[in-house]
């Protein structure tokens, strides 16, 4: 099991065996290169820890513990986490600022504690088998256990097809779960309980002025970047040319990071390329800049086939591909990189939030008129290579406008519509209420904040952060997201909605904070994501891989799929009747993953509920 994670920590590997327990760890050396080998035990052997991540304020916690009489044998944050637990038990987690997943064995009380950071930056999978519990940083560690079965979870499959990811606590394998962000699990005498230790509450404060909010945000950003620049190994910044990553470059430069290294992905496709913007940021701050051009000649097929091993669960988000190549290039120069994940979820940067508001107004139009508009769009907007993105988004928006606002928000970030999913599987669950269970009501916090809370609980944790973690750790690269410092998340949750989005203006308070710091061209540019031209490539370089993977034999192994519906999806895309590139990406990565790990089809009647329900995520 430990060996299966070697890519996450190539610098050191260790195991510990004790009564009732076996612990293993691999380590990527970032802090205290000469010390900190894991597992770490207290001198009396009473407590043992294995740990993945970084606690950025470990130095101040260490000083507090030393004042209380604790003595340390290393300079690493892992030992600080262990000693903090000895001193404060599970209350210690509230003192940590950082990203982490950890396991601590309490020998005296025969107790195991598993914990995951507030926002789910670091992963933690688990499976309970009777009185036993098996866990690991990646799903493949649990698959290495001899008693693990490999049966597809049909409910999770539906979620995957709808959303592009599987929300915690489920995974695509029945019986294996993800510990939700901000939770810890306590195991004792064969029984376990999952408890929240942090929950982000939205409490908009109308008394805050924009000027005061901008000043506070400036302080928080500087503090978060400063803490996350601490490293005993080379460090850089992922730069897309957008406001989030450019903000990180600005503060890193201001704080004296030298030489400041930046890393970017360029595309041959004009619809995805952001090279004009990130080259301007690199020039402005005089960074040591590195970029990789992702094009048809790149080893795209080889990378996608590697995903089947490294991705743990398949990702229907085609943004995995550029993150893979970006991570690979970055690791050739540094061991740690800062990234801008979280800015869109905290400050309302996605176009979906504007779509939510526009669709709310459109629903005042009689439904038959909207249906006529959708039919007209399909007739007028022909499938063409020149305007693929525009045509796809317009049709997607109009289709979403016919749904309820809760359904539409999930649909715009997802892949398969309910109709398409039902055609693929013969059955489908259209209920979306379980995803909103436990959220604060819109009447209390506002419509926008409710969608932000949803995306922070699921889309951010189970799609974006999972994608970045797997693609980066596959190359032994640690990626830190300063914008997800929990103090920033709590700050954003206190802001009135008008400081995040007002009409067509988005990320208002972040733009206000960065005025005079970043060029107006960067502050005012349109939102663009790290994506690939999926629609084009599934009529070109990715088509042979799709045909080789989603075969008749593969479909027979997974009889829950209707083969004729899958083939129709491919045919419609090839013949340019529809742009199904994003849907085909999800199917391709799913079938490659099932093939790689020998995943078995579930019994047709198997719709077993997860043992941790969505209410626990709240």
What does this protein structure show overall?
There is one protein chain. This protein is α+β, with helices and mostly antiparallel strands and 618 residues long. The protein has a domain at 3-196: 4-Layer Sandwich (Glutamine Phosphoribosylpyrophosphate, subunit 1, domain 1). Helices cover 43% and strands 15% of the residues. The protein contains 26 helices and 18 strands. The strands form five sheets. A six-stranded antiparallel sheet has the order 3-4-5-6-10-11, covered by helices on one side. It has a five-stranded parallel sheet with strand order 14-13-12-15-16, sandwiched between helices. It has a three-stranded antiparallel sheet with strand order 8-7-9. Strand 1 and strand 2 form a beta hairpin. Helix 11 crosses helix 13. The model is unreliable at 608-618 (pLDDT under 50).
Describe how the helices and strands are arranged.
Blueprint: E1 12-18, E2 21-27, E3 40-41, E4 47-55, H1 58-67, H2 77-88, E5 98-106, E6 111-116, E7 125-129, E8 132-136, H3 139-143, H4 154-163, E9 177-178, E10 183-188, E11 191-196, H5 210-228, E12 235-238, H6 243-254, E13 261-267, H7 275-285, E14 288-294, H8 300-310, H9 320-331, E15 336-338, H10 343-347, H11 351-362, H12 367-380, H13 388-401, H14 405-413, H15 418-425, H16 433-436, H17 442-445, H18 447-473, E16 478-480, H19 486-494, E17 501-502, E18 505-506, H20 508-514, H21 520-523, H22 534-537, H23 543-549, H24 552-557, H25 563-574, H26 581-596
Parallel strand pairs: 12-13, 12-15, 13-14, 15-16
Antiparallel strand pairs: 1-2, 3-4, 4-5, 5-6, 6-10, 7-8, 7-9, 10-11, 17-18
Helix pairs in contact: 1-2, 5-20, 8-26, 9-18, 11-13, 11-14, 12-13, 13-14
